[in-house]
Design a protein that fits this description.
Number of strands of chain A: 2
Helix content of chain A: over 70%
Strand order of the largest sheet of chain A: 1-2
CATH topology of chain A: MetI-like fold
Shape of chain B: globular
Oligomer: heterotrimer
Order of helices and strands of chain A: HEEHHHHHHHHHHHH
Largest sheet of chain B: none
Chains: A mainly alpha (295), B mainly alpha (268), C alpha+beta (365)
Number of helices of chain B: 11
Distance between the termini of chain A: 50 Å
Strand content of chain B: under 5%
């Protein structure tokens, strides 16, 4: 056996062990994720007539998805709502992450993080429903305010519209935003802050010139982690969104289950994925440039 | 005092996080069908009603079965992948692992519809099995995330030492690896169980004639007169989640203490 | 050397394209305390792990007690290892750790195993610690448990991977002494990997100095220090001054060298372990082989003139950088601080004495 052959053999055994061990999981993901996603992509170029699928390739679904004002409006609204949720969540989350990282003693940080994550793990459906109960026409907020004599008529601008969706989603995704920012802040070497103050910056300028830039990767991660799932959220718009708070996921569901137009639903799903992907890439790219920039 | 203002903000944020959940027990024990303050009085009626709904019981049993199987399968798949990632180097590792973790960042509705389309195309009848298939897919990345830290924290020389002292690879895994990653495995099981029990969208799309608990719940939310019962049910669910999470956190910390590592934060 | 217990024949190891071991050939004797010394990345740990059976070799042969080890995994080799991190199983007690390797010994009953464990613990000075939890031990105690755990199996060879690097200085010095004592007591061959030249010199019967996957010199500590084969070895072990020299080799008359700063000298061929050829060369001299002459001190050794450029006071010693007449780069000279020897100021003109027998000749500059 030549040296090269032996090398090849050794290389294979290490790699082969890895492949062997990862293969059940990878195979599962291949069969139940890659194949379905590919199928959806294929469907989006087909058409459906009642129950028959016509597999002639066509762009008709995409033309309809982009041409029909209803779909355009839904996509735009999904983006707007997701954007608003992301902005609200990340902005309110940052001070919390900062507080836990910089003002909570080391021994109690785990407890704080645990407290912040617990609501996330409790039933999503019930949490969303609770907001409906709180914000509704006869809900806790209105009934209580009326009972206290503060308002005469129930407030109506808080339920069954986009505002309610934003509030509910911001609440649901709070831990998702806090954790990555917290992790980024924890990684900051505290002596950097002392160095900055030693070099003449005050607390505020130190925060702006040192802490914030170093926390940026966490902020970007938080943005992505909130933005991606919210744009495809189904439950919240259905429960608290009302007719003007519906989002793209609701339309995808309608196409698949109610209108029996799987190809159009598939096209909408593909477009949603592409939108999410594109915006994610923009953010990742911005983050990279941002990190490289100051050097 | 900067820290002072931040502390007040942080505490009020916690109130915002917990306020909706705090309403659950309040109205679950409230003697009135309207969910509003002031409270009417104390009752256990809504809880006792829970015991008299057969459809609910079927849904709970169904959900529990699905959650247990999902937890076992996804933890097993997670162990394979996490171990492979921690121990071996192979071409395309990042790509493969990234793909397996993809469901973490994919909107669930897309996972749900794409699975639905494929299952219908190949003519598989929707049932608890199809829900399990979907749940395993989305739970596995969470399991890997938890198990990864267990396997990465495991000092490779511990396994080498056991092997060096005469054990085989298999007995090394049994005597050293497994006991040391066991806390990670338990929290992985608990997390996957919790996610599956709570998951709605995929179950909504893939369930057949036997709804899971969230799907059943979804059906009930439309009826205002059922709200107090839903509140009672929610109270129980939240209590269960908190219990499971506390257990998971306990095992995670014990695992860290055991391997002598450092606490690096929560589950995510 | 005694009967060889480890034989390495042209051992080659590749990691992908990286050539980690480039033909290692050596024999390690029975009962020897042997060290593999080198900077990080030189392949010493890789070599140790190929002996243990954790790494396959690409070509060549490893023999243990005359038996070829190809295809024999670590659990069936007559070697045991003390890991750099000690690898104490955190979920087991001290006694369970030490007795770990006895699990498969069916010829021993529980009682006999317990006795062996207690003996091993006593041997490393941890008698009575058996019931303690492993993760509650200090660094030094972990090290002792690791030793007891490996020695209890009475291996033919004990492999130690930088076992002292995690300990603080005081404890390290104490453990160096104890390891040596333990090795004499059990009579087992020890192979120690270290990057600390002092440690290797203190503890070993023989040392292999490794650079870039090759053994640069394999010798006793004294020979390594006094007659390093080349400048790289000389530089790695202790401190050595290197002075440019012009050499002419004449048969039967030794080696004539014209050394910058020192002058002409005749060098014994034994002091040119790497061989000598006429032409440009380099001469090495250790700092303690030169001394500064005080006031009217007389000597029959050779003398050079110079000026103190810098000094570093170490308490027991003072190191001087002295610029000798005729060369740019100052030489380092170490002087013991004894009564009547003041520490010289910078700028002091001094005389430096030296001896041709302490020069080492290296080929090329």
């Amino acid at each position: 056996m030549t040296l090269k052959e032996r090398l090849g053999r050794l290389g294979r055994t290490e790699a082969a062990n890895g492949y062997l061990l990862v293969s059940p999981t990878a195979l599962y993901a291949l069969l139940l994720l890659a194949v379905p996603l590919a199928t959806i992509l294929a469907f989006s170029f087909w058409t459906q007539n009642y129950l028959d699928i016509d597999t002639t390739l066509t762009l008709k679904n995409y033309q309809e998805a982009f041409g029909e004002p209803l779909y355009r409006q839904l996509m735009l609204r999904s983006l707007m709502i997701s954007g608003a949720v992301t902005l609200a969540t990340v902005l309110t989350a940052f001070p919390i992450a900062y507080f836990v990282s910089f003002h909570v003693p080391q021994s109690r940080k785990s407890l704080w993080i645990f407290l912040i994550t617990i609501p996330f793990w409790t039933s999503y459906l019930i949490r969303v429903f609770l907001w409906k109960v709180i914000l509704g026409y006869n809900g806790v907020l209105n009934a209580t305010l009326q009972g206290a004599g503060l308002i005469d008529e129930p407030l109506t601008f808080i339920l069954y519209n986009a505002n309610a969706v934003v509030i509910t989603l911001a609440h649901a995704f709070a831990p998702f935003a806090i954790l990555p920012i917290f992790v980024a802040l924890e990684k900051i070497d505290r002596s950097l802050l002392e160095a900055s103050q030693d070099l003449g910056e005050n607390r505020l300028t130190t925060f702006l010139r040192v802490t914030l830039p170093l926390a940026m990767p966490g902020v970007v991660a938080a943005v992505l982690i909130v933005f991606i799932p919210t744009i495809g959220d189904y439950v919240t718009p259905r429960l608290v969104g009302g007719p003007n708070g519906l989002m793209i996921a609701n339309m995808i569901q309608t196409q698949f289950l109610k209108l029996n137009n799987a190809p159009l639903g598939a096209a909408l799903a593909v477009i949603a994925m592409l939108l999410v992907g594109a915006i994610s890439l923009i953010f990742v790219g911005l983050n990279r440039r941002f990190l490289r920039g100051p050097k | 005092m900067r820290g002072g203002w931040l502390r007040i903000y942080a505490l009020s944020y916690l109130v915002f996080l917990y306020a909706p959940i705090a309403l659950l027990p309040i109205f679950a024990f409230n003697d009135g069908t309207v969910i509003a303050f002031p409270l009417r009085g104390f009752t256990l009626q809504w809880f006792s009603e829970l015991t008299q709904i057969p459809a609910l019981h079927t849904a709970v049993a169904n959900s529990l079965m699905i959650a247990v199987i999902t937890a076992l399968v996804s933890t097993l798949l997670g162990i394979c992948a996490a171990r492979a990632a921690a121990r071996y180097d192979f071409p395309g590792k990042r790509g493969i692992m990234g793909f397996i973790m993809l469901p973490l960042v994919l909107p669930e509705i897309i996972v749900a519809v794409s699975l639905l389309v494929v299952l219908l195309q190949i003519g598989i009848r929707l049932s608890a099995v199809t829900v399990i298939l979907g749940h395993v897919l989305i739970c596995t990345p969470f399991c890997i995330a938890i198990l990864n830290s267990s396997f990465q924290n495991l000092d490779k020389s511990l396994e080498e030492a056991a092997f060096d002292l005469g054990e085989t690879r298999l007995s090394t895994f049994r005597l050293i690896t497994l006991p040391l990653v066991m806390p990670g495995i338990i929290s992985s099981l608990l997390i996957a169980f919790t996610i599956s029990l709570d998951e709605f969208i995929i179950a909504f799309f893939l369930t057949g004639n036997e709804p899971t608990l969230p799907v059943y719940l979804w059906g009930q939310l439309r009826f205002p007169q059922k709200i107090p019962v839903v509140m009672a049910l929610g109270t129980l669910l939240v209590a269960l989640s908190v219990l499971l999470l506390t257990l998971a956190e306990y095992f995670r910390r014990r695992g860290i203490a055991r391997t002598g590592g450092k606490d690096t934060g929560g589950f995510l | 050397m005694t009967r060889p217990i480890i034989t390495l024949r042209d051992v080659q190891k590749y990691y992908g394209d990286y050539h980690a071991l480039r033909g290692i050939t050596a024999e390690i004797g029975e009962g020897e305390f042997f060290s593999l010394l080198g900077p990080s990345g030189c392949g010493k740990t890789t070599l140790l792990r190929t002996i243990a059976g954790f790494e396959d070799i690409t070509s060549g042969a490893v023999l243990l007690d005359g038996q070829p080890m190809e295809g024999v995994p670590a659990n069936r080799r007559p070697t045991n290892m003390v890991f750099q991190s000690y690898a104490i199983f955190p979920h087991l007690s001290v006694a369970e750790n030490v007795g770990f390797g006895l699990r498969r010994r069916t010829d021993l009953d529980r009682r006999a195993k317990q006795t062996l464990v207690e003996e091993a613990l006593t041997m490393v000075g941890l008698g009575g610690y058996g019931a303690r939890a492993a993760h509650a031990l200090s660094g030094g105690q972990r090290q002792r448990v690791a030793l007891a755990r490996a020695l209890i199996l009475k291996p033919k060879v004990l492999l130690l991977d930088e076992p002292l690097s995690a300990l603080d200085k005081k404890l390290r010095e104490q453990m160096q002494f104890e390891l040596r004592r333990l090795q004499r007591q059990v009579g087992i061959t020890f192979v120690l990997v270290t990057h600390d030249q002092e440690e290797a010199l203190i503890m070993s019967d023989r040392v292999a100095v490794m650079f870039e996957g090759q053994i640069a010199q394999l010798d006793s500590p004294q020979n390594l220090y006094r007659r390093p084969l080349n400048r790289q070895v000389a530089d790695f072990i202790g401190v050595m001054n290197f002075l440019p020299a012009t050499v002419s080799v004449e048969d039967g008359q030794g080696i004539n060298a014209d050394v910058a700063g020192l002058g002409r000298a005749v060098i014994d061929p034994e002091q040119a372990p790497g061989g000598a050829t006429s032409g440009a060369a380099c001469v090495g001299i250790r700092p303690e082989m030169m001394s500064i002459l005080y006031e009217n001190e007389q000597t029959d050794r050779r003398i050079a003139e110079g000026v103190v450029e810098e000094r570093a006071y170490y308490g027991d010693m003072t190191y001087y950088d002295v610029r000798l007449d005729g060369i740019e780069k100052p030489v380092t000279i170490s002087m013991k601080n004894i009564v009547g020897r003041p520490v010289l100021d910078r700028g002091t003109a001094t005389r430096v004495s030296w001896d041709a027998r302490s020069l080492v000749l290296f080929n090329a500059a």
